[in-house]
Hints:
The structure is a homodimer. By secondary structure, chain A is an alpha/beta fold.
Amino acid sequence: MKITMKDIAEEAKVSIATVSHVLNNKPGRVSDAMREKIKKIAREKKYVTNHTARQLATNKSNTIGIIVPDLENYFFASMVSRLQAKMRERGYFVLVVTSNDEIRNDLEGIRLLVSRGIDLLAISVSNAAQNHPEEYLSMLEDLSVPAIMIDRIIKEFKGSKIRFDDFSGMNKLTEYVIDNHHRKIAFLNGDMNMARTAGRIQGFLASMEAHGCAVDQKDIYDGDYSFESGYALFDAIYDQHTYTAIIAANDMMAYGLMNRAIERGLTLPDDISISGYDNVIFSEMLNPSLTTVNQDMNSLMDEVLRVIDLSLKDPHYSENIIIDTQLIKRNSVGSI
Amino acid sequence: MKITMKDIAEEAKVSIATVSHVLNNKPGRVSDAMREKIKKIAREKKYVTNHTARQLATNKSNTIGIIVPDLENYFFASMVSRLQAKMRERGYFVLVVTSNDEIRNDLEGIRLLVSRGIDLLAISVSNAAQNHPEEYLSMLEDLSVPAIMIDRIIKEFKGSKIRFDDFSGMNKLTEYVIDNHHRKIAFLNGDMNMARTAGRIQGFLASMEAHGCAVDQKDIYDGDYSFESGYALFDAIYDQHTYTAIIAANDMMAYGLMNRAIERGLTLPDDISISGYDNVIFSEMLNPSLTTVNQDMNSLMDEVLRVIDLSLKDPHYSENIIIDTQLIKRNSVGSI
DNA sequence: TTGTACGCGTTATCAC
DNA sequence: GTGATAACGCGTACAA
């Protein structure tokens, strides 16, 4: 049986109002003796406040919702994890919904969260979202709570957007590879349907062009961000015997490339240089360790929390933030 | 402004009761014409049910809560992710709390979830919990909802418990190594404060003894499950020049061992065999690929869901389940 | 076929 | 200092 304020009020022979005041630590009003008595009873009976009822009465949930494509993805798991820890410090609870990268689930998730009464919605949209922004925008617009987009955004969205700078990240990585005297470089591209692919390849192309390195259509290989696609494409790339380096659009494909290279008995980076993007935790543990681009989760969270705090105060607050990345020089890219 | 049933009732010129009936798809009562009219208005006004109010009225939340130590840990992220997907199919929402492996947060999490009104609590307790079971047990006992423990359990807990069989997993792995004619085997142990460490080392010792392989105290090396501890201890182990194999209590430490071995120019598994435990996703991608033990998440989830379904029906249902593991033979363990 | 009225647990306003 | 009581939005038994 659940203990309510009513039970405590009866036991203490006071009104519910008084119990409420005491349990919420409101100053004044009640005598110290009564305060103690009520608190004692609450403790003994193991009273726990019914958040649902409070929410109904106050129309305030002290809860924010977040929708991410996939918790099995370390990036999002880490994001959610930190967000929850930080928001807890602020007295907020975080509701998490995973969309499995399906628009349908994004939209259902929004409904689900809103129906539960959140004070703010954060979302990393599904990859396909950018192709169908209308639904999102109309849905988010007449939401009664502020919304922000993190990492995976929709350009047209008018609320706050926070993301990493793919263009400059890949740009400076490419620059670094070129600085190591590589001229013939293959680019292993990711899935072009994914939100963040375009920025990366453009960063690569811009850097190559800036340094007068020719890039032909056939120097771009189409992977899908998976280990397998890197593994499968290595032979095709390497056996051209024209490249001295391969830049992969993410670490997983770079692993695939390296794995096949080592399997073929090649020496890295002497026979060929390979780089990745994301700085996955294992990248440091490989032999050779992987040169890649890091996206600092702390920087992201700092901005996210700043924007959340502001949005909670002013629901119409809006800001577009692009976060810088760091080039991580390790041993998989060599100088020639 | 939020749309409520009242708004719809006014617009349709009927009572709130009628609107409620229609929106909850209750059979009979209302005329088809009125049904359509009400649904249309709800759609136009973008009505979304106030779950908070419903919960207060029905005392049913269609929500379960889960507490895990850490979402950045793939195992738990995967667990939560699948649980959420499966429970969604059942019309349930999953509230997630991370404890950061601190008892304090476990207990606070329980309070937090209960105050929000969950129909069931699932928890993977903090590692230190087994040392202080009293608090948990008293807290969970007079909880008004059923509770189950997953993976990280407290032995004394009387509700349902579901976990993997560490003993038999490590036992058969050791057996396999011995079958490959290894006799002098070093064991790289994990943190003994962690819930699942004991079972693993016991499985190793039992198998060694069963095959008449001597194990001395100094053949057990104390790691802490981290890559670094494996990396740091490799030299100490290898330079004994007595071992032909090292069994690590998890994959991360095995990575550390392998990394240092390769750095020293050794050939695996010719110079020394190494095995892990957990079958982390990257274990397949290493050179050589890592022989390890897999804990099938699908099997775990099947059992978890079965128990949840039963517990939701009968709050006093209780079962103690131990799930089998699979030996994954790859290339890091060689025959001698 | 539809409406009335009450309860869910809490907060907040006002009265005493 | 303390108590009554009206919201909050919804579900439901009982009337009509």
